[in-house]
Amino acid sequence: ITTTTALSSNLHSFLMRHHQQLTPTEVLTLFLMNEKLRGLDSEWRFFIDSLPAAYTTPVYLGSKLLAQLPEAMCRKAEAQVSRIRSTFIRLHILLKRASLGDLKLLSLSENFTWHLFVWAWTAVNTRCIFSKHRTGHSLWVDDYCALAPFLDCLNHHWKADVETAVVGSYFEIVTNNDYEPNDQVFISYGSHDNKKLLLEYGFVLADNPNDVVAITKGHLHKLNLQQKDVVLHFASKLSFLEEKDIISDTCGFTVDGLTWNGKIVVQVLSHPKASRLVWNNLLFRCGEQELDHQQIQLVVTLIQVMLCDYSTPLPDGKDWCSQTVAAFIKEETKVLKRQLYIYTRKTLSCG
C-alpha cells in the first residue's frame, strides 16, 4: 500500500489538490482511516481487520503512565504526543474545508475522530517499511514508505540479518540467519535502544545489547549538588560538554559499562583544572586511560543519582500499556543496578 494506492481510491481528487500540504505517511494514514470507514466495501478489509485495535506507543499510554517514565523519556513521549495532536488538528481542518465541495470526503470528514486518527497514524508509523527506492507517486519527493500486508507481522530482533529489495510490485525480504522448522523468523528495525523502540514501536526488549541508559543534564546538576568538592568549575564544564555534543542519547551506561562519551563526562567533571584546552585533550585520549579511584567513586554516585529516576512504584496494571511501561523501567534499572554493583566493587579493589 503506497501513495499510488491512495491516489487510486476515492481520495484521489483531494490528494491531488492538497498534496503539498501532506506527507506520504499522512497520506497513508488518511487512506487507512478511509478504508476502515468503508468496512465491507473495502478491498483492504482483511488487512485492516488484521491490525491491532490499539497500541502501546506513548500516544496510547495516557498521562498517568507517561508520568511514571524517567523525566527525560517522559518529555520525549509528551513531545511526540503533542506533534501527533497537532497533525490531527491540521488534517481535520483541511478535510473539513475540502469536504464542503467534495461529497466523497463527507464520510471521512464527519467521522474524523481522535480515536480513529490515532489508530491509523500508529498503524502506519509502527508498521510501514522504507525502501531505498521511491515506492509511491512522484508528487512527493520523499516518498519511500509503504505498508506491506503480512510482512508487517514479522517481529524485530537485534540478531536478525536481512536484505530487502523492491522487486516489481513486491517487497522482498531475504534472511541470512538459519532457522529450524516452526521457528519464528525475525527482521531488524535497526540497532535501536529501548527508548527508541518504545517511542516508535511501543515495545521493549529484554537484555537489549543496544540499550543505553542516558546521562542527562538533569543528572549532572543533581550530581553536582552531591559532589561539590569533587566537581569544580561545574558550569564551565557543563557548557563545554554541551558545546562538544558529548551529552546525548548515546552517552550513558550499557550492559557492558560506561560508554566512551560517558567516560569523557566523568573525566571532564573530575578534572581539577579550569582549562578548555585540557578538557579538549581528553576528547582525543578517551579510552587510553582507565578511570582512577576518585573517578570511579564519581561514577558510583552518578548511578545512584540516575536510579532516583525510578523511585516510584512500578505500574501494576494487567493491561498491555502498563506492562510495557513496567518492562521499560525494569530494563533500565537492571542496567544501572548491574553497573552500580560493578563500579562499587571497583572502588573496593582500588581503595
Report the end-to-end length measured between terminal Cα atoms.
63 Å
Q: In terms of per-residue confidence, which ranges show pLDDT below 50 for 5 or more consecutive residues?
A: none
Summed up, the domain count is 3
| Major sheet: arrangement of strands | 7-8-9
Number of helices: 15
What is the rounded Rg? Answer: 24 Å
Quick one: how many beta strands?
9
Organism: Amblyomma aureolatum
InterPro entries: SET_dom_sf, SETD3_SETD6_MTase, SETD4_SET
GO molecular function: protein-lysine N-methyltransferase activity
Protein name: Putative set domain-containing protein
Give the arrangement of secondary structure elements.
Blueprint: H1 3-7, H2 12-18, H3 24-38, H4 45-50, H5 58-66, H6 71-99, H7 106-110, H8 114-127, E1 129-130, E2 145-146, E3 155-156, E4 162-167, E5 170-175, E6 186-187, H9 194-201, E7 213-214, H10 217-226, H11 234-243, E8 252-254, E9 257-258, H12 260-270, H13 276-284, H14 293-307, H15 320-350
Parallel strand pairs: 3-6
Antiparallel strand pairs: 1-2, 4-5, 7-8, 8-9
